[in-house]
Amino acid sequence: MAQLLTPFAGDSADQLASRLRTQFGSLKRALDAPKDRLLAAAGPFAKSCELLLAARDLIDAATREDMVSRQVDVSDPALARYIRDRIGFCHEERLLVIFSGPGRSYLLDEEMGIGGPDTVRLTAATLFRRAFTVGAEGILLAHNHPSGMCSPSPADETATRELSGLAEKLQIELLDHLIVTRSKLFSMRAAGHFD
Questions:
Q1: Helix axes 2-9, 13-24, angle to 10 degrees
Q2: What is the pLDDT of residues 72-98, one digit of tens each?
Q3: For residues 177 and 194, what is the distance between their CA atoms, to the nearest angstrom?
Q4: What are the tens digits of pLDDT across the range 51-79?
Q5: H/E/C letters for each residue in the chain?
Q6: Which end of the chain has the least Cβ crowding within 10 Å, N or C?
Q7: Are 96 and 87 in contact (CB under 8 A)?
Q8: Backbone angles phi, psi at 147, to 5 degrees
Q9: For the whole model, what pTM was predicted?
Q10: Beta carbons within 8 Å of 13's beta carbon, 6+ residues apart
Q11: Radius of gyration over every alpha carbon of the chain, rounded to an integer in angstroms
Q12: Cα–Cα distances in angstroms (integers) from residue 184 to residues 19, 51, 113, 160, 187, in the given order
């Protein structure tokens, strides 16, 4: 890990690697951590981690660039890969929302919730307020299950039905709600959880 951190931390790479390994266990987990947790773990090496975060943002921007020219279509392998890369490997539940415009064109995506190992929370008001702000016509929800179980919980099923009903009343299409693991995606729409 220290070798990979040398461009960011220079002579302090060994010390930073030790701190991050102690706190997160791996570089991947450190990079997936929320910014405030990463900087707190870095301690006196926070400036180096800010550079690391900037590199992470650069990679994220490059990945999103490919999405801009696509339709939001859950059968698209590139979209599935993008979603898995964004949240599939995280160790706490995260909710990724992809907003679409006319013709299901990709507008933007945002992580709108970070939870614990088995729950994530987001209010419907926050979700739909953001959809209206960006002019979305459609919303695709995706959240990960760190347990590796790629099936919805009863709470997932209830929340999806409620959000589907609200979306319909607000004339915003709820495209799907995906459950994501490291290797799989489960479509709640395809499984009939929107009825």
A1: 120
A2: 998 888 899 889 988 888 888 889 999
A3: 9
A4: 888 887 887 777 777 777 788 998 888 89
A5: CHHHHHHHHHHHHHHHHHHHHHHHCCHHHHHHCCHHHHHHHHHHHHHHHHHHHHHHHHHHHHHHHHHHCCECCCCCHHHHHHHHHHHHCCCCCEEEEEEECHHHEEEEEEEEEECCCCCCCCCHHHHHHHHHHHCCCEEEEEEECCCCCCCCCHHHHHHHHHHHHHHHHCCCEEEEEEEECCCCEEECCCCCCCC
A6: C
A7: yes
A8: -65, -20
A9: 0.74
A10: 2, 3, 5, 6
A11: 18
A12: 32, 32, 20, 19, 10
179 strand-pairing partners: 143, 186
Residue found by looking up tokens 């490059």 in the block = 62
> Encoding tokens for residue 100?
């679409």
* Both structure tokens of 28: 């991947």
Measured CA to CA, the distance from residue 33 to residue 93 in angstroms comes to 12
